[in-house]
Each structure stands twice: as structure tokens, then as C-alpha cells.
Amino acid sequence: MTLTKEVRLSEWYFGGLASAGAASMTHPLDLLKVQMQTQKGKNVSMLMLTKTVLKNQGIFGLYNGISASLLRQLTYSTARFGIYEVCNQRLAPKDGRPMPFYMKAFLAGLGGFAGGFVGNPADLVNVRMQNDMKLPPDQRRNYKNAIHGLWRVAATEGVLRLWAGASMTSGRAVLMTIGQIAFYDQIKSKLLLTGYFDDNVITHVTSSLLAGGIATTMTQPVDVLKTRLQNAKPGEVNSLLQLVKNTAKESPLAFFKGYIPAFARLAPHTILTFVLLEQLRLNFGKIQIVPA
Fold first, then answer.
1. Would you list the domain boundaries of the chain?
2. How far is 254 from 39, CA to CA, in rounded Å?
3. What percent of the chain has a predicted confidence (pLDDT) above 70?
């Protein structure tokens, strides 16, 4: 007689909902990260940037671009989590053995690439809205919300401008999704095998914290280049090579500008995303019978 057990599996859209919920709480850190990445010349600390935002915009200034941030997660993260979950559930070994890590990484990379492309328009508007307050009043774009920003970009710069930096966004999303999802799954599996961890919040937080650190390190150089490309005015950057050269002239560390706020933002965002995702899975996920 074969022993079996019930497990809860995520629905394809759980990741987008969890990521949007996490983004609503970590948006101020994301805003500060973008502003640090677009600095040129003398660097301003995260604390000084926070003081400047609060002085000029008030507490709500920390939530500039929140509508674009939520739209980004509902497109970008829904696609990358959805593709990973669907493929993972269909391709997982039927005998209950865990999927090899290289397959997890491949599926995560595939989901990340698609998510980066789908989410690029919202990502572009998100970067611009977060950086708008740094510009002189006569140079600000003044998007009212994410939908208004998408319409303005399409109407004044052309529809294809919405996918400016899409190759870099998708490349970053590949690394981000491998760092977050594939490593999270792998770390969680290894922790559960030790016998010291159960499928609970402690395991979810531990796994997601480690995955957040890995994802930040993997993606930061690409993230800096992507942010600068998306924030550039038409004609300001002629090629990716030019952008890399201009950034390198500042110093090799310029590729890691905003690393601390990036990790400070990504770590809690990753933790909140996976804690919310796991709660959705455990409480509302579909039941499947697998070998014990």
C-alpha cells in the first residue's frame, strides 16, 4: 500500500497578489533606491534623501508612484510567479522527489524573462514617477497616476517607448527571479529536510531573507543601468555600451549605487511576498495528493 499525503499548491495568480501587497508596504524604500541610483556626481546618503523628500513633499512624497508600483507587481510578478508555479507543478517528479535545482533555475529564468517584458511599461512609469521630485519644476513629467503615465508616454514618445530598456528589464528579471524564487524554493527544501524546520512562518522568513540577499547581489549592476536608461530623455543614451562606459567612468562601485537601500528594500519585500504567498497557499491553495 502506497502512503500518500495532502499538500497545498499555489494558484498561478497568488504571486502577483502577494507581491502587490508587499510593494504597498516597501514602496518608500524602493523610491529612495531609485533616487540614489539616478544620482550623478556627489552621492547623497539614504538618510539625507529621506529628509529631503519629507521636507519638500511631506510623508506622502515617500509614496510617489505607488500606483505604478502596484501595476508593475500585478503584471511583472503575476507573470513570473505564474509561469514558475504552473511549470513547476506540471513538471515536478510524480514520485514526490524534489525538482533538481537547475530545472528550478531554468523555470524561474523563463518566468522572469516573460515578466520583465510584460511589466516593462509599468516599470518605466514607476521609475519616472519616483524620480520626478528630483527634477526642476519645468522638467517634471507630472504623471497623475500609472495609467496617465502610460498614456502620456505612448502619446508623446510613441508606444514603443514603453518598452525602453525592455531587454535590460527582462535580463534583470531573469536574475531576480532565479535569486528570489528558485533559491527560495531550494533553501526552503533543504531546511525542511534537516528536521529542525517545519512548513511555517519561521522557515518562510529564513528562506526568503537568504533569497533576498542573493537576489540583490545578482541584480544590482543591471538594476542601476536599467534605472538610468529608463530615466533618460530621448536621445540622451544612444546605446547600452555607452551607458556602461559612462557609468564605469564614475567608478566601478557606481554599478552598485544604492546597494544598501536596494537590499533594505528587497529583503523585507521578499520576506513579505513569500510570507503572504505561503499564507495564500496554505489557506486557499488547491489540494493535491502526493506520495508521503
1. 4-291
2. 10
3. 96
Which of 34-38, 245-249, 284-288 has maximum average pLDDT? 284-288
User: Which residues pair with residue 9 across a beta bridge?
Assistant: 286
CATH number of the 4-291 domain: 1.50.40.10
Task: Quote the mean pLDDT of the chain.
Answer: 87
pTM of the full predicted structure? Answer: 0.80
Alpha helices in 132-239 (DSSP H): 146-157, 166-177, 183-193, 201-231
Closest CA to 126 of 189, 184, 67, 60: 67
Write out pLDDT tens, residues 90-146: 998 877 678 899 999 999 999 999 999 999 999 999 888 877 877 788 888 889 899
Residue-wise burial string across 122-161, b where 16 or more C-beta atoms lie within 10 A, e elsewhere? bbbbbbbbbbbbbeeeeeeeebeebebbbebbeeeeeeee
Query: Whose CA is closest to 165, among 214, 71, 234, 111?
Result: 234
The sign of the dihedral angle between the CA atoms of 83, 86, 91, 92 is: positive
